[in-house]
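Hi F.,

I've been meaning to write this up properly since the lab meeting, where we talked about keeping a consistent format for the predictions we share between groups. The idea is simple: the sequence comes first, exactly as it goes in, then the C-alpha cells exactly as they come out, then a line or two of notes. No screenshots and no reformatting. I'm using this chain as the first example so we have something concrete to point to.
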Amino acid sequence: MKKIISTLLFAILFIGCQEKVDNSAQEAFEKNSKTVLLNIESWQNESMDYSMYSKDFIMLETGVGTEKDSLTLDDIIANDKKMWDYYDFKILNTPVLLPGVNPDTKMPDGSVRHYSTWQVTLSATDSTESKSGNIKLYESFDFDADGKILYQQVYGDFKGLMMQLHDDDNTVVDE
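Output, unedited:
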C-alpha cells in the first residue's frame, strides 16, 4: 500500500512540477494567419478593408531604385487604387503560411509569412490585347498587440513583370 501511495504522490509531484507550455506565439500565428488570408482575398477582390492595419503601419519598400525606403498606410491606399485601375490580380495557389520569428530572439512571435504565385493581367484597350504574367512572391506581416498589421514587406520581380506586361509601350505603373 505504501508503494502505491508513494508512486501516486510521485506521479502527482511529477505532473505538478512540469512547466506550463506557452502556446501564445502559436495562438497569435493562427489568429494572424486569418488576417493575412483576408488581406490576400481582399487584395484579389479589390475590396481591401484597411481597418486590419495599425495606425502606425509601415511597409518596407523593397524595389530597386525607389525614392523612399518605406510607405505609410496612406501611400499604400493610393498605390492600391492605382494598381487596381490598371491591373487585375488573381492568386494561383493556396498561400503557404509559415510562422515568423523575432529577429533578435529567433523565437516564434505570431508574425506570418507566405509564399504565393499571382497572375497579373493588364486589361485590353481599344488598341491593345490584354496581357498576363505570373509573379512569385514572398511576403511577411508583423502585428501589433491588437492583432493589426504593423509592418509588411513583399519581395518579387515586379520590374520584370512590368516589363513583360508593357514590352511594346512606354506605360509602366510604378508599384
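Notes:
Residues 38 and 48 are 9 Å apart (CA to CA).
The domain at 21-165 is CATH 3.10.450.50 (Nuclear Transport Factor 2; Chain: A,).

If this format works for you, I'll send the rest the same way.

G.
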